[in-house]
Amino acid sequence: MIEPIRPQASAAHARVALFDFDGTLSLIRSGWVDVMVPMMVEILADLKTGESDAELRALVEDFVWRLTGKETIYQMMEFAGHVARRGGRALDPLEYKKMYLDLLWLRISGRIEELKNGHASPEQYMVPGARALLETLRARGLKMYLASGTDEIYMKEEARLLDVARYFDGGVYGALDDYKSFSKKILIQRILSTTDVAGDQILGFGDGYVEIEEVKQVGGVTVGVATTEPECRVVDDWKRQRLIGVGADYIVPNYLCHDDLVAMLFSNGKP
Fold first, then answer.
1. Within 13 Å of residue 55, how many CA atoms lie on the same side as its CB?
2. Which residues contact 80 (CB under 8 A, 6 or more apart)?
3. Would the pLDDT of 8 be above 50?
4. How many Cβ atoms sit within 10 Å of the Cβ of residue 49?
5. CA distance 176 to 160
6. In this structure, what are the phi and psi dihedrals at residue 194, rounded to the nearest 5 degrees?
7. Is 157 in contact with 21 (CB distance < 8 Å)?
8. CA distances from 122 to 131, 158, 161 (A)
């Protein structure tokens, strides 16, 4: 199912495709929100501010989602600020990040091992139809970039295990220890400043605020992946509303209709 939010939005002149990784192509880290949010809610609840768990969850979900697509450290920085504002002794955001990654590893380590040992096919941990879409875009001659808020050392390995790194002739990028030295915004500005590609020639795919917002700000066309993980068969309405709110031109739950999606994207923009 493809939902055209702005059916006149055309990528007919697109020369670059920019993809987010987790939740857009990869499902290896599916369920990460269900690790991060409870961790944060538990720490805030221990401060005994009188806020209910439901109130704290709503608070945390709001900023976690808003920062999805940025480097993980930004979610931890925001969280540390909430701890401090409630009178808690906030840890360094890097410490919170390590806590989260340790908890996440308990959830995803089996998936990594399955892929490494060949006990699971890459497609088992990819959004359905993703490889066919990548093949089609590459065949159309688009230069492709993969950018993630996940630490680069991890996401490059995961992209290799899923056998998708080879599609991204523009490069595979992730979060760095020096978090100020890389972001999706920086990558987009680098593309615009070092090539003859214009902003309206960028086609973006993502499941979070950041990649959709940044591509739209330079005049590109965007596809919001508002999927209910890990099955990725139906649209998650919560994600859908937020992706539309930051400018998604099309909404999909997966890429099984990639032929139709490509036809819509590369039309001349007329209804």
1. 7
2. 90, 91, 92, 93, 96
3. yes
4. 14
5. 18
6. -110, -5
7. no
8. 10, 10, 7
Residue 271's pLDDT is 44
- Sequence-distant (6+) residues with CB within 8 A of 153 are 174
Total-model pTM:
0.91
Which residue shows structure tokens 């221990």? 46
For residue 7, is the peptide bond before it cis, meaning its omega torsion is within 30 degrees of 0?
A: no
Strands 250-252 and 3-4: antiparallel
- What is the mean pLDDT of the segment spanning 42-55? 97
pLDDT at 114 (0 to 100): 98
> Could you say which DSSP state residue 90 is in?
P
The predicted structure's pLDDT at residue 270: 46
Task: Spell out where the chain has E strands.
Answer: 3-4, 16-19, 143-151, 171-175, 202-206, 221-225, 250-252
CA atoms within 13 A on the CB side of 247: 18
Backbone dihedral angles phi then psi of residue 43, each to the nearest 5 degrees? -65, -40
pLDDT tens profile 123-165: 999 999 999 999 999 999 999 999 998 999 999 999 999 999 9
Look up residue 179 and give its amino acid: Y
- Across all residues in the chain, what is the average pLDDT? 95
Q: Which is nearest to 229 in space by CA: 23, 44, 61, 68?
A: 23
Dist. CA 95–CA 77, nearest whole Å: 10
- Tokens linked to 23: 């939740």
